[in-house]
Amino acid sequence: MRSTSPPRTYRVKSFGCQMNVYDGERMSELLAEQGLTPAADGADADLVVLNTCHIREKAADKVYSDIGRLRREDGTTPLIAVAGCVAQAEGEEIMARAPSVSMVVGPQAYHRLPEMVERAAAGQRATDTDMPAAAKFAALPARRRAGASAFLTVQEGCDKFCTYCVVPYTRGAEISRPFDDLLAEAERLTEAGAREITLLGQNVNAWTGEDAKGRAIAFDGLVRELAKLPDLQRIRYTTSHPNDVTEGLIAAHGEVSKLMPYLHLPVQSGSNPILKAMNRSHTAESYLRLLERFRAARPDIALSGDFIVGFPGETEQDFSDTLQLVDSVGYAQAFSFKYSPRPGTPAATMEHQIAPGVMDERLQRLQAAINRDQYAFNRKSVGLRCDVLVERKGKHPGQWLGKSPWLQSVHFEGDAKIGDMVTVDLAEAGPNSLRGILATQAAA
Ligand code: 5AD
Ligand code: SF4
User: Fold this and answer.
1) Residue 224 in contact with residue 209, Cβ under 8 Å?
2) How far is the CA of 335 from the centre of ligand 2 (A)?
C-alpha cells in the first residue's frame, strides 16, 4: 500500500559511478526546489529515489531487493522512484514486476522528476526514459550547495561501443554540454564553496565546444578556461578514453598548475587479441606510449586505470599480459572487475565465456599486483611536502581528511576547516592513505 498524500521528505540513494553521484545531487536539488526537505539520517522518507547502476552483475536483482527493503512494518511504502541506468535499461519490467514503484526515470529525463512526483502523489504511475540530454541540463535549477570538492558533468554518453559495455545503450550518444553553461555552473559551484571540481564524462576528454568568443576548443581548452576562475584551486577529470587523448591535453598537464597530476585512463586488458575483441581500438603498446607522453609532460603524474578480467576467450597468456602491463606501469591506483555479461551487448553472446572460479582467481592476482603498486606509490610519497584540500572531519577528534594532488587520502591533526588548502608533510604511508603533519596553513 502506498500513501497518497504529497511527500514532504526525500532521500536519494545513488549507486555506481561518479556521474550517478552527480545526477543524484541534481535530483536532490530539483526536489528541494519543489519544497521537499531531505529526510534526516535514519529517518523514514516520504519519497525515495533509487539511482541505480547497470554496469555489472545482478544490477536488476539488487534493485528489486532494495525496493523490497523499503516496505515498512505496517505494510506501507514510501513513494518510490527508480532512476539511473537500470531504469533506462529495464524500466518496463520494473513497472510490471514492482507495483510499489510509481516512477521510473532514465538518466536523461530526470529533470522531469518534479512533475512525476506530483502525479505519483495523486496515484498515477509514470515511466520516462526519453533521451533529450541537452534539455535535461537546461531544465535543472542552478547549483546551490557544494562540498570542498564537487562534480561537474561536462560530457555524457558514449559512441565507442566496447563490446562488453552497456553505457552506449543506457546513457546514449556522446554529447558535450555548451561551454557557457559549464562556466556558469563552475562559477556557482565555487560560490557555494567548491575549491576543486572534477569534470565528469563517460569519455570526458571527447568534449568539444566553443569558448566565449566562439572559437572551437577541445577538452584541454575547457580545462584552461576553467583554470582562470580565481576561487577554483584544483581541476580533475574522469573518465578519459585513450583514443580521445590529444597533444593539447598532455601539454596541459605540464602547463596548467591547477590541473592535478593524476590521470585515470582505463586500458581494460594488456592483451592485444582481447583488446581487439573488446573493440577498444588501441593496443597495449599504444596505451603505454600514451602514458609515457603524459609522464614526459608531468613527471610526477599518478596513473590510474580500469581492468576487466575474464573477458570471453581470455587465456592464461592473455591474463599474464595484463599483469605484465600492470608491472610496467606502476599504477598509483587502479580498479579491476570480473567480466559481467550485460544483456544486449555483443560480448554477452561470445563463445568461450570464462568460468567464475577462473575469474575469481585472476581477479585476486590482479588486485594483489595493483595493491602492491598502490602501497609502493604511497610509500614513495613519504617525505614530500604537498597541498592537501580539506574535505571532511576524520574519525578521531581534531583529525581532518583531505586529498593530496595525487588523489591520495591524507589525514592529519591540527587547526583546519573544510575547504582549506593546507600544506602537509607526508609522514607515514598505509596501503590506502597517508598520515600528514600540518606544516603551514594557507588562507582559505
Ligand atoms: N563487466 C565488467 N566490468 C565492466 N566495466 C564496464 N562494463 C563491464 C562489464 N560488462 C568496467 C570497465 C569500465 C568500468 C567503469 O567498469 O572497466 O572502465
Ligand atoms: Fe553505472 Fe555506467 Fe550508468 Fe554510471 S553510466 S551508473 S557506471 S551503468
Assistant:
1) no
2) 15
* Contact between 392 and 318 (Cβ < 8 Å): no
Query: Which CATH fold would you assign to the domain 9-133?
Result: Rossmann fold (3.40.50)
In the chain, where are the structural domains located? 9-133, 135-381, 385-443
Q: CATH class for domain 135-381?
A: alpha beta
Query: Cβ distance 218 to 208 under 8 Å?
Result: yes
What gap in Å lies between CA 366 and CA 308, rounded to an integer?
A: 10
Q: Which CATH class is domain 385-443?
A: mainly beta
For position 3, what pLDDT does the model report?
53
| All residues at 6 or more sequence positions from 111 whose CB lies less than 8 Å from its CB, including other chains | 30, 135, 136, 137, 139, 140
Helices (H), 98-218: 113-121, 133-139, 167-170, 179-191
85: number of Cβ within 10 Å: 26
d(CA 218, CA 207): 6
By three-state DSSP, how is residue 436 classified? strand
Contact status, residue 314 vs residue 361, Cβ threshold 8 Å: no
Using an 8 Å Cβ cutoff, are 83 and 27 in contact?
yes
Look up residue 356 and give its three cell numbers. 567464475
φ/ψ (deg, to 5) at 344: 90, -10
Atom of ligand 2 nearest to the CA of 107: 3
The DSSP secondary structure of 198-240, one letter per residue, reads EEE-TTGGG-EEE-TTS-EEEHHHHHHHHTT-TT--EEEEE--
d(CA 86, CA 16): 11
Residue nearest to atom 5 of ligand 2 (CA): 167
Between CA 434 and CA 178 the distance in angstroms is 38
Atom of ligand 1 nearest to the CA of 57: 1
- For residue 266, the ligand 1 atom closest to its alpha carbon is 18
pLDDT mean values, one per 10 residues, the chain (444 residues): 78 94 95 94 92 86 92 93 94 95 96 95 92 82 89 95 94 94 96 97 96 95 98 97 97 98 98 98 97 98 98 98 98 97 95 97 98 98 98 94 98 95 97 94 46
> pTM higher than 0.70, yes or no?
yes
Contact 274, 350 (CB under 8 A): no
105-115 confidence digits (pLDDT tens): 999 999 999 99
